């Protein structure tokens, strides 16, 4: 009988230990499931029995334990990316790029002039409204991929292949960004599109060599035009400057000749006035002044008589080194 009492006591002690263990585990479970942390770049979306309650910011937060409240952490400040027509190796986001077969289908597009082009692009976006992103649309990432491909095919289909490959890239990016953001808002995906960027845009593989030759010829043409414009801009201003210089020199020479002529006329009129007063005296004075200017320039002088049989050299009349005449 004593053994039975001891066994009963042992069973009660064992049950109490088990009960306290269960209580301890329950307390630990309550403690760990009532606390959660939201990272600095994220927000937490809280559900209570599956119903949305609130959105919490970064920091240490509390909630009802044991699955009463559920919290989904959403990286609202992180810039996310999706790639179309290609895929970057090592990507952690499963919706960042599609399979190889789908990539081939994504990048093959028909342009507005019924040509084809291979277009690779990326979109960068952020989660703006976590509640809409989580609960408004099923698979918002896949929906965004479908919308982006639809928008890009629409924008490319409105342009020629030359515009898509060469001059129209920025316009395509801007138009695609506007249309994509409009559809995202319409479908309430809770996303903000930061950028749409075209990567590799090429003609189809069979015609790429011919297309590159055409582009090279166009580049050489543009280069030759630029060189010709450079030569034109260098030669024409120089010729214009030389012409202006010659015109100014001619005008200066003309003005000089006019002033000289007017001076000669004034001097002639002055001489004429003196001549009219005393003709013989003025005539002799003019003769002497003229001979004074001419004779020093003659060098050696030779006087010949009409009946002379030989030429007689005369004494030098030019001034010597001391300024005297011999």
Summarize, please:
The protein is of the alpha+beta class and 326 residues long. The protein is 54% helix and 19% strand.
Average of per-residue pLDDT values: 84
Low-confidence stretches: 321-326
CATH C-level of the largest domain: Alpha Beta
Strand content: 15-25%
Topology:
Elements: H1 2-33, E1 35-38, E2 43-48, E3 51-56, E4 59-62, E5 69-74, E6 80-84, H2 100-107, E7 108-110, E8 116-127, H3 130-135, H4 140-157, H5 161-167, H6 169-187, E9 191-202, H7 208-277, H8 279-294, E10 302-303, E11 312-313
Helix pairs in contact: 4-6, 5-6, 7-8
Offer a few descriptive terms.
single chain, 326 residues, alpha+beta, Tetrahydropterin Synthase, Chain A, four-stranded antiparallel beta sheet, three-stranded antiparallel beta sheet, 8 helices, 11 strands, 19% strand, disordered C terminus
Description:
The chain has about 325 residues and is α+β, with helices and mostly antiparallel strands. The protein folds into 4 domains: about 10-75, no CATH class; about 80-205, Tetrahydropterin Synthase, Chain A (2-Layer Sandwich), CATH 3.30.479.30; about 210-255; about 280-315, no CATH class. About 55% of the residues lie in helices and about 20% in strands. The protein has 8 helices and 11 strands. The strands form 4 sheets. Strands 6, 7, 8 and 9 form a 4-stranded antiparallel β-sheet that branches. The chain has a 3-stranded antiparallel β-sheet with strand order 3-2-5, with no helix packed on it. The chain is elongated and about 180 Å long. The relative contact order is 0.06. The model is unreliable at about 320-325 (pLDDT under 50).
């Amino acid at each position: 009988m004593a053994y039975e009492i001891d066994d009963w006591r042992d069973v009660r002690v064992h049950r109490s230990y088990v009960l306290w263990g269960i209580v301890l585990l329950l307390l630990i479970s309550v403690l760990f499931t009532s606390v959660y942390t939201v990272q600095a770049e994220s927000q937490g979306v809280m559900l209570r029995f599956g119903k949305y309650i609130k959105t919490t910011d970064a920091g240490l937060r509390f909630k009802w334990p044991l699955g009463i409240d559920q919290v989904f952490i959403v990286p609202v400040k992180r810039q996310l990316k999706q790639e179309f027509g290609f895929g970057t190796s090592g990507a952690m986001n499963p919706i960042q790029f599609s399979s190889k077969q789908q990539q081939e289908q994504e990048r093959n597009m028909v342009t507005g002039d019924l040509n084809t082009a291979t277009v690779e692009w990326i979109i960068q976006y952020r989660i703006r409204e976590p509640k809409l992103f989580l609960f408004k649309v099923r698979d918002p990432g896949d929906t965004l991929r479908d919308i982006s491909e639809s928008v890009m095919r629409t924008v490319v289909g409105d342009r020629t292949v030359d515009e898509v490959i060469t001059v129209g890239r920025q316009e395509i990016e801007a138009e695609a960004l506007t249309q994509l953001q409009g559809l995202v808002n319409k479908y309430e995906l809770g996303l903000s599109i930061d950028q749409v960027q075209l990567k590799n845009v090429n003609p189809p593989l069979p015609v790429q060599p011919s297309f590159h030759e055409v582009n090279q010829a166009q580049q050489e043409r543009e280069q030759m035009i630029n060189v010709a414009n450079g030569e034109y801009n260098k030669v024409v201003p120089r010729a214009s400057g030389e012409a202006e210089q010659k015109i100014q020199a001619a005008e200066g020479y003309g003005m000089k000749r006019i002033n000289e002529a007017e001076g000669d006329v004034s001097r002639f009129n002055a001489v004429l006035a003196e001549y009219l007063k005393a003709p013989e005296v003025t005539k002799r004075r003019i003769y002497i002044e003229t001979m004074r200017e001419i004779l020093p320039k003659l060098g050696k002088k030779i006087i010949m008589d009409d009946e002379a049989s030989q030429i007689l050299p005369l004494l030098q009349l030019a001034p010597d080194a001391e300024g005297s005449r011999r």
